[in-house]
Amino acid sequence: MKLAAVDIGSNAIRLQITNVTHYQDKTTFKKLEYLRFPLRLGMDVFHVQKISDKNRRKFVKLMKAFKLLIDLYEVDDYIVCATSAMRESANGKEIADEVKQDIGLKIQIIDGNREAELINLALWSYIDEKPYLHIDVGGGSTELNIYKNKEKIASKSFKIGSVRALDDNIPLSVWKSMNKFIGENITSKDKITCIGTGGNINKIFEMSNPAKNKRYISPDKIKEIQQYLESFSYEDRINKLNLNPDRADVIIPASKIYLAAMTAASSKKMIVPDVGLKDGLMNVLYERNKIKKVVK
After folding, report:
1. Contact between 35 and 17 (Cβ < 8 Å)
2. E-strand spans in 89-228?
């Protein structure tokens, strides 16, 4: 069984195609294709509240390319989800309708709570009875989820994202709201461990030179990497540190968002599991097709 998931974010758009096989009661997921295209829809939306004509044309072309790959791989089922940029864009639904009519690709524009739910589906293997704060920083929003005794006790989406933060245009009231949410649901006795998801924390973790099989990072180490990045110009981050252009600018504001949430929770450790929305989407696809298979 072949499954495809498309994650339309504010900073980039991702396609993953996975082959699922069953052998001797064992289910195996093998990645066949992964593409990340740096189309920054959020820069348009967070400044002028709509996707520009130029990026609209590029977006439609990209959806055509993704649809071709989905067809070429003879995918059995797929799901396409768009997050904060398209849901806040005045012409987001109009563009989604155009893609459905002209290309035959159905785009679901999801809210922050649904986005958090989907990401959470990929996290359960990292969560036990201890208290956790899951921090997912995207280009346009940050989703926070709090777990205790393997149950989610609170969840909220905030308009704080790495692309949105580039021009320091996030109101102080939004930051205060995030801190208040954390303070109301976490006590000093909880000893919270954070779980960080998103492309930027994965890159920060990679740059920390972790020990083999280690998936933890401390706030001090995140701060150290942040300061190291700030010592380079944007051009040098690209040319000397070999960061992608669409990563080289947003990685610093993203690090500040993770640190702000960790500080509010008084957390000393973050797990970085390298999963995200696309993995949650794969989980949804697998479950609904497994059910279809049983029904047949």
Report:
1. no
2. 108-109, 132-137, 142-148, 151-158, 193-197, 216-217
Q: Is the dihedral of CA 93, 9, 253, 268 positive or negative?
A: positive
State which amino acid sits at residue 263: T
**Euclidean distance between CA atoms 280 and 18, whole angstroms:** 13
Q: What are phi and psi of 176, to 5 degrees?
A: -65, -35
User: CA 89 to CA 84: how far, in whole Å?
Assistant: 8
CATH of domain 2-112+278-295: 3.30.420.40
pTM over 0.70: yes
- For helices 219-230 and 199-207, the axis angle rounded to 10 degrees is 90
What 3-state DSSP class applies to 129?
coil
CATH says 126-275 is which class? Answer: alpha beta
Which residues have C-beta within 8 Å of that of residue 74, sequence separation ≥ 6? 2
State pLDDT tens for residues 243-285. Answer: 999 999 999 999 999 999 999 999 999 999 988 888 889 989 9
